[in-house]
Amino acid sequence: MEQNYFTGIDIGTTSTKAVVFDVSGNVLAQKSIAYEMFHPKPNWSEQNPDEIYEAVNQCLTFLDKRSLLETLSFSSAMHSIMVVDIAGKPLTNLIVWADNRAIDIGNTLKKSELGQKIYQRTGTPIHPFSFLCKILWLKENEPETFRKAHKFIGIKEYVWHKIFGQYEIDESLASATGIMNIKDLCWDKKVLSLVGIGEEKLPKIVPTTFSRTHQALNYIIGAADGPLANLGTNATGKSKLAFTMGTSGAVRICVNEYYSDPQMRTFNYLLSENQHVIGGATNNGAVVIQWLKEQILQTTASTEELIEKAEKIPAGAENLLFLPYILGERAPVWNADAKGVFFGLSINHSQAHLIRAVMEGLILNLYSVGKVLMEKFPVEEICASGGFAKSDFWLQLVADIFQKKVVVSANVEGSAWGAVLIAMKSMKLKPKNILKNVGKEFFPNPENKQTYAILHTKFERLYEKLKDEF
């Protein structure tokens, strides 16, 4: 029977989105349901797992009423953790990637020889965001919850269990926990010993192409959203760097080799057993623009209107520089204590200067990650995706700061389409008559090359001078 519809279910930080594609990658329909993140204590970032599961249900119900469901495949945000009892009932909220409650544990482990060895075996930098550090925090601070735990899982595993009654995790998400041995594709015994649990407390690791059937629908377990964005935007191979910015942001390269950075600046996750996604993610993406708009500028102007103002300011924001670490930071500094800084403010700076400096600071930070990758791999172009890719100005900033050509996928739903490509691989199908993958192209402005080279050097030097003061 010919497959007509493939649905990518992208469980993100701020919403779940279900996107229906045909076999050529054309978007036929989509539905998105948003939900909140809440912060009950300083450094805590949580969500209600049942609210997210209900969002998945609502998206699928919407598409099912239109008879658009046949094969479904999952994408999911990484680094979430929750505890469930033997009945599958949550004992905690979902603790998400932005949560820094394990900051002391992460800092101590990162500086140790043991932390370095764990990074080398797992590919996941030691940081409070990781599944590993959050389990250690629960063990130390909520021993009764730790004792009662039947399983430690992430949000996709919770949704999967709700549907099938099985605790299973794809090898891509498992590779981002800091507990999986990335070479042996199994839970690392030495890390388990450190945590004080057996592998029975964790989901079973399965390939990204693993499938189950429910109510005549074929479900593919899929992978993590970052690696899937590489696949979905055709950013595979040593010459292509994926650049994504939504609530957070990331740069990644997909190659057929394992790489760990001696300075622990980059991660190594899996797309599949033989495809390694190397790069770094930032806590601080478009959420910083939202913070600036609502908390600092306190304006009713739209984000688009603010960006238009920034575009009128010269490159470099007339010597105003912004360190964008309002949520601490993952790559490249892996410092949960880092803070945001405006540097160089003068009486001549306006609202528009602040906006431009924030936008440039976000890209300069990701360039620090990209520079590490570009020193290792012969990158020729950047493949952009995420909500920011709808703005020409954002994309031109990336081209100017990275001094590389930026191409935008004709399909900006990179992670959802990547999930569908995994489903097709599972079913031994190939996409047909794929339309030209490239939408717009942006080329670096040589007039801005020197400005941004100087600004980036200053950006990194300023962080080094301030890091011990945070």
CATH architectural grouping of the largest domain: 2-Layer Sandwich
Q: How are the strands of the largest sheet arranged?
A: 17-18-16-15-21-22-23
User: Which shape, going by the Cα principal axes?
Assistant: globular
Query: Over the alpha carbons, how many angstroms does the gyration radius reach?
Result: 21 Å
Domain count: the total is 2
**What can be said about the biggest beta sheet?**
7 strands, mixed
Residue share in β-strands: 15-25%
Protein structure class: alpha+beta
Percent of residues in helices: 25-40%
Terminal Cα span: 60 Å
Please count the helical segments. 15
CATH topology of the largest domain: Nucleotidyltransferase, domain 5
Query: Averaged pLDDT, please?
Result: 94
Low-confidence stretches: none
For this structure, what is the CATH class of the largest domain?
Answer: Alpha Beta
Number of strands: 23
Q: Any idea what the CATH superfamily of the largest domain is called?
A: ATPase, nucleotide binding domain
Describe the structure in your own words:
This is Xylulose kinase. Its EC number is 2.7.1.17. Residues 242-426 form the Carbohydrate kinase FGGY C-terminal domain. The protein is 36% helix and 23% strand. The chain has two domains: 6-225, ATPase, nucleotide binding domain (Nucleotidyltransferase, domain 5), CATH 3.30.420.40; 234-410 and 436-470, ATPase, nucleotide binding domain (Nucleotidyltransferase, domain 5, 2-Layer Sandwich). The longest helix has 26 residues, at 351-376. A hairpin with a 5-residue loop joins strand 2 (15-21) and strand 3. It has 15 helices and 23 strands. The strands form seven sheets. It has a seven-stranded mixed β-sheet with strand order 17-18-16-15-21-22-23. It has a six-stranded mixed β-sheet with strand order 3-2-1-5-14-13, with helices on both faces.
